[in-house]
Specification:
Helices cover 49% and strands 8% of the residues. The chain contains four helices and two strands; from the N terminus they run E-H-H-H-E-H. The longest helix is centred in the first third of the chain and has 13 residues, at 9-21. The mean pLDDT is 88.
């Protein structure tokens, strides 16, 4: 089962900058994380606001960084 998370524009800018620092092409990163080059381009340009969490971790690994996901806290209260 896929676990989608929101990815904001600030995160995609950081990932894009990191990719460029490493001298990697979008197509190479796309291949490494298992998406098409078109889909990856949409991610980097903020046009794909959600992504599978496992893929986010793969993406970070390819860029030699660590992705830390902290979901909002869910609490239950009596009615």
């Amino acid at each position: 089962m896929e676990n989608f998370v929101e990815i904001d524009r600030q995160l995609t800018r950081q990932m894009k900058d990191r990719r460029r620092e490493l001298g990697l092409l979008q197509t190479a990163v796309a291949d490494s994380i298992g998406v098409s080059a078109t889909y990856y381009n949409r991610i980097e340009n903020g046009l794909q606001p959600r992504m599978d969490l496992d893929r986010v971790h793969k993406w970070a690994e390819v860029l030699q960084i660590k992705a830390v996901y902290t979901p909002a806290q869910l609490t239950l209260e009596d009615l």
